[in-house]
Amino acid sequence: MFVQQLINGLMLGSTYSLIALGYTLVLGLLEMLNIAHGDVFMFGAFLGLTLAMFGAPLYVAVIAALLGAGILSVIIERSCFRPLRKAHFLGPLLSTIAFGILLQNLATQIWGSEPLRYPQTTEIAQFRLGPVQISSIQVIILATSLLLMMGIDLFARKTRMGRAMRATSENQINASLLGIDVNRVITFTFFASGALAGVAGVLTALVYLQITPFIGIRQGLIGMVAMVIGGLGNLRGAMIGGIMIGIIEVMNDAYLTASYRDMIIFGLFFAFLVFKPEGLFGTTERRA
Amino acid sequence: MSVYLEGVLALMGINILMALSVYAILTTDQLSLGNAGFMAIGAYTSAYLTVKAGFPLMPALLIGAALASLLGLLIGIPALRLKGIYLVMATCAFGEMVRTFFLNFEPTGGAYGFRGPFGTTLPLVYGWVLFFIVVFWLLDRSRLGASLNAVRDDPEVASSLGLNVTALKIGVFWLGAFIAGVAGGLYAHHMFYIESSNFNFLVSAMAILFVILGGMQTFWGPVVGGIIFSVLPELLRFLKDWRLFFFGAALVLMMIFRPSGIMTRQMVRDAGTWIGGVFGKTRR
Fold first, then answer.
1. Cα dihedral B7, B203, B31, B220 in deg (nearest 10)
2. CA distance, residue A114 to nearest chain B CA (Å)
3. Which of A237, B96, B188, B280 could form a disulfide with A281 if both were Cys (CB 3.0 to 4.6 A apart)?
4. Under an 8 A CB cutoff, do B208 and A94 touch?
5. Chain B partners of A274 at a C-beta cutoff of 8 Å?
6. pTM
7. Model ipTM?
8. Rounded CA gap, A261 and A251, in Å?
């Protein structure tokens, strides 16, 4: 059923969009990759899951993951980016790989390496719209991610901090000459980036996956693919890129063999980087 | 020699080779986060040849490495268009493609992995390590090495001086992929069993860590980095399950306090002078 698959893809993709947005925020600001981003996602998922195990309702789990992952992301900025701000771009890249190893093993110590499933804390209702079936959880996932995406988009365009973020990403020195507290902007951006990943973690844990300490590696890479396809440094592009990947993934599983899914996605990733590095919605200006 | 020590030493040699493969490509300021892909090609090809086709180990290693280096050429060409983090992401995509390919490729076992290759010995591993050290040592003293340095420092100036920057940049990808292919073959015949997850993203990432933390100014950096960061997790064994946590933390701290790596060009020069002094010769 094509429409059903399209909707499933949209739901899955919206969680990828949240991850991609986090990458994009940091990349747009500092021109650097946070390799530990996927592990922030993993941490958010575990945080929400732990609270749910103690019986916390879903919204509490989401808010806790948002705050916890946001703070974790700020810690990453303080330890991997700020001390190396003048270094070669390799510096933070490497530091964040190391930080990812640290987080994966910390999570193994806290939660063990067995996959954990999100306990059912809310009633799941099924809605039927003609031939299409949607569960209440799927509606929650889609609504939460769309709300966050619109929120971050409005925030970047309308608020003072959002303007400061955009000015800093244009030119850090000019921004600081104009009286923008660049350090504050960077801290805030990392918080927002982590918070989005944390929420994505809880939402993903709800339906799609069992959570393990190493789940962040693939999800992080997929988020990176979504960012590249959407256009680097382009917030709306990252949202659409994520949803596209979600739809491609679901369609592939429905109509082709599931096992070649990641080959197709990473092939697409490679092809975009080589032939269309500005992505679908990016500007033609080459950043490198 | 105990089996444990032999295992640690063999993997150390393979790690040094992986570090050198990243270093080779890095000599022209190109960073590859996909060398586990080249390693996988070398590993699966040579393992298939020895187990299924009855090849002796050495020719199988060479064919595996040759195939990996061919892929290196194919990746090197599109890589010319990319710089910095974009190249990092593209090579990472390549590595993941190779991994998912072998996860699904039935002739080499697919998801069940591939069993049977054996025969890697310590002299074989360190023979290859020594061979590539000599290659880099010679390269360092050759016109070609100077050309590579020029390309790294400023590709535009290098090209205006008449150097074929394109060929050099593709060439180092070929070399790096070849070394990783050899490392993969040695790895497969050391482990007796390989599966696609042996060649995941973290393997590529660790290879880069060896280079950056060992130092990327001279080829001694990856060698020292490979040694230290193969031994370090073993020394941290007393921390039991926490050791990789502290390993990660140690790396983060190192990047903060010594971002240029352990071995710098100056240190090699000083060591050379010191050795020269001991043996009564002054160097340069």
1. -20
2. 15
3. A237
4. yes
5. 78, 81-82, 90
6. 0.88
7. 0.85
8. 10
Cβ separation of A102 and B245 shorter than 8 Å? Answer: yes
Buried residues in A30-53 as b, exposed as e (16+ CB within 10 A):
bbbbbbbbbbbbbbbbbbbbbbbe
For chain A, say whether B77 makes contact (Cβ under 8 Å). Answer: no
Range of the domain at A64: 21-127+136-225
A127-186 residue pLDDT tens: 887 778 888 888 888 899 999 989 988 988 899 998 898 888 888 888 888 888 889 999
Q: Tell me which chain A residues have a C-beta less than 8 angstroms from the C-beta of B249.
A: 98, 102
The total number of structural domains that make up chain A:
1
pLDDT in tens, A226-254: 999 988 878 888 999 999 999 999 998 88
Q: Hey, are the CB atoms on A100 and B248 less than 8 Å from each other?
A: yes
Of all residues in chain B, what percent are helix, strand and coil, respectively (each to 5)?
Answer: 80, 0, 20
What are the tens digits of pLDDT across the range A121-138? Answer: 667 778 887 778 888 888
Residue B25 touches partner A, C-beta closer than 8 Å = no
Q: Report yes or no on A255 lying in a domain.
A: no
- The answer to whether residue A15 sits within a structural domain is no
In a mutational test of the B interface, the residue from A32, A78, A80, A95 whose CB has the highest number of chain B CBs within 10 Å is A95
What's chain A's average pLDDT? Answer: 88
Which residue in B98, B103, B245, B262 has the most chain A C-beta atoms within 10 A of its own C-beta, making it the best mutation to test that interface?
A: B245
Give the one of B96, B101, B255 whose C-beta lies nearest to A95's C-beta: B255
Query: Identity (one letter) of the amino acid at B19?
Result: A
Q: Confidence class of residue B280 from pLDDT cuts 50, 70 and 90?
A: low
Q: Which residues of B touch A28 (CB under 8 A)?
A: none
Residue at A79 is within a domain: yes
Q: Is residue A55's pLDDT more than 60?
A: yes
Torsion angles phi and psi, residue B217, rounded to 5: -85, -25
User: Is A278 within the bounds of a domain?
Assistant: no
Contact between B39 and B203 (Cβ < 8 Å)? yes
Alpha helices (H) in A77-89, listed in sequence order: none
Tell me what the mean pLDDT of segment A78-90 comes to.
84
